[in-house]
Amino acid sequence: MFAHRGASYDLPEHTLAAYLRALAEGADGLECDVRLTRDGHLVCVHDRRLDRTSNGRGLVSARTLAELEMLDFGSWHPGCAPADGDEPPDESHTRLLTLERLLDAVLDAGRPVRLLVETKHPSRYGADVERRLVRMLRRYGLAEPRPDDPVQVTVMSFSPLAVRRIRELAPTLPTVLLLEVLPRWLRLGRLPFGTRIAGPGIGLVRARPQLLPALRAAGNEVYVWTVNEPEDLDLVLTAGVDGIITDRPAQTLARLGR
Ligand code: G3P
Ligand code: CA
After folding, report:
1. Would the CB of 28 count as within 6 Å of ligand 1?
2. Could you confirm whether 4 is annotated as catalytic?
3. Is ligand 1 within 6 A of the CB of residue 118?
4. Of 14, 46, 77, 93, catalytic
5. Is the dihedral of CA 91, 50, 11, 222 positive or negative?
6. Does the N-terminal peptide bond of residue 122 adopt cis geometry, omega within 30 degrees of 0?
7. Which side of the chain, N or C, has fewer Cβ within a 10 Å radius?
8. How many CB atoms are located within 10 Å of the residue 223 CB?
């Protein structure tokens, strides 16, 4: 079970506080999105624009890391509002999260953690997103996973080209091809570029009840996002699934009886 953008129902998505909460709640793994800043840093932000999740405006890709570090990425979220008389939330709730800081936190967790890193496209920096990601994972010793490594990274994208780049740059790193709809070219038996994990959205799973069994029968693993509602959890558990990606790790674990 993977916490989508951290424990992002309860706390502002992609903040260190949201990820630490998910780990404390017992999530097996974490999911994050990455984008490149103007000066080439990988930062954990979902949207192209800053407007929804920060007090900034405009494109993430047009700002330097130093500029993004000045923004507040937490106060928009109800989980960040201090109760009467309480101290305001600390910077782990409001500061931009770099991929580097997230990797440090995961390596410091002192227990096995899976990390799903999604590269966001289209990006004005194109292939540089994957190049810089693999370079960083190499620096952390995470680009060539060994079975007993406590931290295991998997790279995901909706972009087949991004998945192909990861396969070329780091052939032993697992990859997930994310699917919002079923592209006509996709053959369920064999995902492209040696990818063995499909990542359909829950809407697609609901619309195509045969999708999960077909993908799995062909030897693929399937990770479904974003499974927040009890009936959706029941649906994917009944169909059979290898990974559940949720905004609500504590509730999901409780329902799984863990
Ligand atoms: O985990 C995959 C999921 O995160 C893909 O959709 O829009 O939440 O990045 P999105
Ligand atoms: Ca994502």
Report:
1. no
2. yes
3. yes
4. 46
5. negative
6. yes
7. C
8. 23
The answer, yes or no, to whether any atom of ligand 1 lies below 6 A from the CB of 31, is yes
The amino acid at residue 246 is T
Q: Which residue's alpha carbon is at the smallest distance from atom 10 of ligand 1?
A: 46
Nearest ligand, CA 198: 1
Q: How far is the CA of 117 from the centre of ligand 1 (A)?
A: 10
Ligand 1 centroid distance, CA of 224 (Å):
10
Q: Other C-beta atoms within 10 Å of 141: how many?
A: 12
Q: In this structure, what token pair is assigned to residue 173?
A: 């790193």
> Which residue, chain included where needed, has tokens 């706390």?
11
pTM: 0.98
Query: 4 CB under 6 A from ligand 1?
Result: yes
For the chain, 258 residues long, give each residue's pLDDT as a single digit of tens. 999 999 999 999 999 999 999 999 999 999 999 999 999 999 999 999 999 999 999 999 999 999 999 999 999 999 998 877 888 889 999 999 999 999 999 999 999 999 999 999 999 999 999 999 999 999 999 999 999 999 999 999 999 999 999 999 999 999 999 999 999 888 878 899 999 999 999 999 999 999 999 999 999 999 999 999 999 999 999 999 999 999 999 999 999 999
Q: Cβ–Cβ contacts within 10 Å for residue 68, how many? A: 22
C-alpha distances out from residue 81 to 4, 85, 93, 255, Å? 21, 11, 10, 28
Q: Is the CB of 115 under 6 A from ligand 1?
A: no
